[in-house]
Amino acid sequence: MQISSKFTIAIHLLAVIHYLGEDGKATSSVLAGSIGVNPVIVRNVMGNLKEAGLIKISQGKSGITLSKKPDEITFYDVYKAVDCVKEEGLFHFHENPNPECPIGRNIHTAMDAKLDRIQASMEAEMRGITLADVMTDIQNELKKE
Amino acid sequence: MQISSKFTIAIHLLAVIHYLGEDGKATSSVLAGSIGVNPVIVRNVMGNLKEAGLIKISQGKSGITLSKKPDEITFYDVYKAVDCVKEEGLFHFHENPNPECPIGRNIHTAMDAKLDRIQASMEAEMRGITLADVMTDIQNELKKE
DNA sequence: TTTTCCTGTAATCGCGTATATTACAGGCAG
DNA sequence: CTGCCTGTAATATACGCGATTACAGGAAAA
Lengths: 145, 145
Known about the structure:
The structure is a homodimer of 145-residue chains.
Chain A: H1 6-20, H2 28-35, H3 39-51, E1 55-56, E2 65-66, H4 75-82, H5 107-127, H6 131-144
Antiparallel strand pairs in A: 1-2
The structure holds a DNA duplex (30 and 30 nucleotides).
């Protein structure tokens, strides 16, 4: 099991948009070229990011730009925007525990809060990492070249 | 995307085994009945838990027992035992970023450590929760009935 | 030792989800 | 107006999860 690549695609997307800057020629085809996936996937992810208010899209001979500064865009924002993990939560609970069994009819109550805590801890870590951190690391790599 | 129910099945399994106790008639069929899944799934999960040294299995007219005390079995132990999340990590990275693009050829380096940190934070939380915590909550629920 | 039940495991099936791909309608910029 | 781009639907393919059947082998109990 893995979290859909839509998440890393979205971060990559934002990084390229920021790198190209205001006047940049960021289109779904250009972005798809850098990321190595189909342009339609990029357009879908772009749609998610737009709904979440992270980017601005203009049509025609366009130009896609960030709506916020890189240090205001957290991994959590992106993760929520692309909706990789559904409402039911990160953990798939087996659905038919036996209510005739003392464990079966209480296992859900006993575990739900604990699973939520685990997921919350992951999401908290995500709130502490921003697009700016990624850009810094990329620029450090580029200097080495 | 969700983490396979093998994880919650495994916890449920351990809870029933502990509840039935040493002389308990815990077999894959009995366990499957409480959990509400196919016995073969239970046997596979049992195999994982056995490899990880969490339970002892004897064949014939059997009896499955815990190898450790409930407060020595953490969620992390179980999660690792059932191998829900593969070696490549929790996040699925898009596989073909373009090396001709300055972002494309550095995005992996820039993100890997960050993704690991997120996963590590989740796993750390898991180390702090044990089977004993689950048993306590279940017993509290049973008292209410 | 024989019987009986249980585990271990392979093979197959159905289903849902991820990603790719094609196609086309609609919108904005030049 | 024209050309390029986005938005989105429809479809195809691949893969993983869980269900199910089937059977070989082993250990306990008689």
